[in-house]
């Protein structure tokens, strides 16, 4: 039976049709994830590196994608689109086994690790939690570039389950917008996946979804090399033990004893948490816009007779610089104020 989930003050009521677990596809002939544990074992672990332990208490982040299919009804969605999405997701998880597990922190361990099962040892609790919902919201508005209330996106976002010693790696919500299309939102534990990993996973899912029409459904199609993930942690060297430094720093930052084991995200500042007045808008920068920014920056460098080394002005650098400069101006910071721009390196 469907449930309704209503957010007070939000113009987006969703009807929950189903909450289920989608496990990795079980096919002994398929190539599975390479780990340090033999395939005959029941369970495996994926250790966290210092790139990961920095984020163990930063909570989840969400990736939301919209897919336009005009005239899509619940009947055709539930009978054609949804089964295909679930099967291709299951096939994808076979190549991304850690995502179907949990981030866990055993009492004897100095840091958490991702624990997951091999296909031959699945239980009913193994797999990725998938919520199937239906929304009455304006698809074109939410998927467009105009001004949209930030809170109107919240009903499309699944909740990532987290306790002191156990956390989901990802959770997914697929939401139908009748006669318009559907959305897929993945809530992601930042200690396990970053933006690049998320996009690789989504591209793999999309690739295998397309392959379903070309292969028998009882066979698991393989991924091309460009979409095949690497889980070899031995490639990352950490002789100084920075991973554990970050673990202790996370506990201390939260006001906890450094030896505490706690995966729950840090509390959000109430001023930041109040998003009722926040809006989103998408801005597009054309090649012409980026060339203008580049010319303006090079001209300013020449006028100030700067002797700094040659600038690497890629589209990404120019976009980040422009957006950040606009943000600083928007909060009326003094022009001479030193500000810091922090971003993930991909």
Highlighted features:
346 residues; alpha+beta; six-stranded mixed sheet; 19% strand; globular
Write a brief structural summary:
Helices cover 28% and strands 19% of the residues. By secondary structure, the protein is an alpha+beta fold. The protein is globular.
Protein described:
The chain is α+β, with helices and mostly antiparallel strands and 346 residues long. 28% of the residues lie in helices and 19% in strands. Strands 1-2-7-10-11-4 form a six-stranded mixed sheet, with helices on one face. Strands 3-6-5-9 form a four-stranded antiparallel sheet, with no helix packed on it. A two-stranded antiparallel sheet has the order 8-12. The protein starts with a strand and ends in a 16-residue tail after the last helix. The model is unreliable at 29-40 (pLDDT under 50).
State the helix count. Answer: 8
Report the span from N to C terminus.
43 Å
Cross-sheet strand order for the largest sheet:
1-2-7-10-11-4
Total number of beta strands: 12
Largest sheet: 6 strands, mixed
User: What class would the helix/strand composition place it in?
Assistant: alpha+beta
- Average pLDDT taken over every residue: 85
Strand content: 15-25%
| Overall body shape | globular
């Amino acid at each position: 039976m469907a449930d309704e989930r209503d957010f007070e003050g939000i113009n987006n009521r969703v009807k929950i049709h189903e909450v289920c677990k989608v496990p990795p596809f079980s096919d002994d002939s398929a190539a599975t994830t390479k780990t340090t544990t033999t395939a005959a074992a029941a369970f495996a672990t994926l250790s966290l590196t210092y790139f990961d332990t920095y984020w163990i208490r930063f909570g989840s982040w969400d990736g939301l994608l919209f897919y336009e299919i005009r005239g899509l009804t619940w009947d055709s969605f539930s009978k054609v689109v949804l089964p295909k999405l679930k099967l291709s997701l299951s096939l994808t998880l076979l190549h991304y086994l850690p995502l179907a597990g949990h981030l866990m922190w055993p009492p004897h361990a100095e840091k958490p690790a991702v624990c997951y099962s091999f296909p031959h040892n699945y239980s009913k609790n193994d797999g990725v939690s998938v919520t199937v919902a239906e929304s009455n919201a304006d698809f074109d508005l939410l998927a467009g570039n105009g001004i949209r209330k930030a809170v109107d996106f919240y009903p499309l976002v699944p909740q990532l389950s987290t306790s002191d010693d156990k956390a989901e790696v990802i959770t997914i919500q697929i939401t139908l917008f009748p006669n318009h299309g559907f959305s897929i939102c993945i809530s992601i534990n930042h200690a396990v996946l970053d933006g690049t990993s998320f996009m690789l996973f989504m591209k793999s899912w999309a690739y295998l979804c397309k392959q379903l029409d070309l292969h028998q459904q009882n066979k698991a199609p393989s991924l091309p090399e460009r979409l095949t993930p690497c889980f070899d942690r031995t490639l990352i060297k950490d002789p100084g033990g920075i991973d554990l430094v970050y673990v202790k720093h996370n506990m201390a930052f939260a006001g906890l004893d450094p030896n505490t084991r706690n995966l729950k995200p840090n509390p959000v500042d109430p001023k930041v948490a109040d998003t009722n007045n926040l809006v989103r808008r998408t801005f597009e920068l054309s090649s012409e816009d980026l060339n203008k920014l580049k010319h303006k920056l090079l001209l300013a460098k020449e006028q100030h007779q700067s002797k700094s080394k040659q600038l690497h002005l890629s589209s990404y650098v120019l976009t980040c610089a422009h957006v950040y400069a606009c943000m600083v101006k928007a909060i009326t910071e003094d022009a001479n104020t030193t500000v810091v721009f922090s971003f993930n390196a991909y």
